[in-house]
């Protein structure tokens, strides 16, 4: 299998390590403009290293785009023109400004990795979207302590683009919110020049959805997300990346992520990333499609502009 990876940052290296263990005898090509990073990587990684893709004309079986979002769209176009069989792009696909990408290719997938969390898998299989009255979801972290530099302090960054997009995708994946009306929105910048704190709500199919994202919360040690659902049968469901709690008539049923343990052939940064790469090289059943990703981008555009 021939695999191309654009970008040798944290995500490019993460996906490489996992794929190198999942795919026997894979042939890797890396496109990374940073010559120093290329030189250092050659000492530890078996593959072909290039500073640009001008000489790449033959199609690849899988291409992963792990670059900054402002080059996502042009790289996807190159991949499709070259005939690459499967294209994987880290989220969000081009950021909120890319909301009307014309090529609706069915072989392009976006890297919303939280879809592969065992808790999310349980919710997908056990909660009917039509049973929901109201949903509250949030993402909290202490990611930004100093003003970011470069593109991370511009329109392609911010808590909504970089972190909140994960939660928006989960809402759409689990509860089908593609038809919505935004009722209220509020944004604040505390450290960066873009959104550090975002609050908004919307209605979708007579259901209420409330969102809160904050990546400058000094009380948070590790990044976290959580959801709380009010259901038509009078019960409520709370879940985060570690557990599910179902409350009804004064009783609480608890399900831990350990009880939902899934076997994987290689472990790195949790089961989610390995499950994501397994889906990529097999049937692509769970991965976010380009169509779903554009729904999220369009929603982010309405919030930010």
UniProtKB/TrEMBL annotation:
It comes from the Bacteria. It holds the Pfam family GFO_IDH_MocA. Residues 2-93 form the Gfo/Idh/MocA-like oxidoreductase N-terminal domain. GO terms for molecular function: nucleotide binding. This is Gfo/Idh/MocA family oxidoreductase. It comes from Winogradskyella luteola. The lineage of its organism: Bacteria, Pseudomonadati, Bacteroidota, Flavobacteriia, Flavobacteriales.
């Amino acid at each position: 299998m021939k695999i191309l990876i654009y970008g040798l940052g944290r995500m490019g290296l993460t996906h490489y390590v996992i794929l190198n263990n999942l795919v026997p005898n894979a042939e890797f090509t890396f496109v990374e403009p940073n010559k120093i990073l290329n030189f250092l990587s050659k000492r530890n990684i078996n593959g072909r290293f290039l500073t640009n893709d001008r000489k790449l004309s033959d199609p690849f079986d899988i291409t992963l785009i792990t670059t900054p979002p402002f080059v996502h769209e042009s790289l996807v176009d190159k991949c499709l023109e070259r005939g690459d069989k499967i294209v994987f792009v880290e989220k969000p696909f081009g950021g909120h400004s890319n909301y009307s990408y014309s090529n609706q290719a069915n072989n392009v997938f976006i890297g919303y990795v939280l879809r592969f969390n065992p808790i999310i898998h349980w919710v997908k299989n056990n909660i009917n979207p039509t049973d929901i009255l109201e949903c509250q979801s949030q993402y909290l972290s202490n990611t930004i302590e100093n003003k970011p530099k470069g593109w991370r302090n511009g329109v392609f960054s911010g808590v909504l683009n970089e972190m909140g997009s994960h939660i928006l995708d989960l809402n759409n994946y689990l509860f089908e919110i593609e038809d919505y009306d935004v009722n209220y929105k509020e944004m604040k910048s505390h450290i960066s020049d873009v959104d550090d704190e975002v609050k908004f709500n919307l209605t979708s199919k007579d259901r209420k959805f409330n969102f809160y994202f904050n990546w400058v919360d000094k009380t948070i040690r590790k990044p976290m997300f959580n959801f709380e659902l009010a259901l038509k049968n009078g019960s409520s469901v709370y879940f985060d990346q570690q557990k599910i709690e179902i409350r009804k008539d004064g009783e609480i049923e608890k399900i831990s992520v350990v009880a939902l343990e899934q076997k994987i052939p290689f472990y790195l940064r949790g089961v989610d990333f390995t499950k994501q790469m397994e889906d990529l090289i097999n049937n692509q059943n769970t991965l976010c499609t380009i169509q779903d990703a554009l729904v999220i981008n369009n929603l982010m555009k309405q919030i930010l502009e």
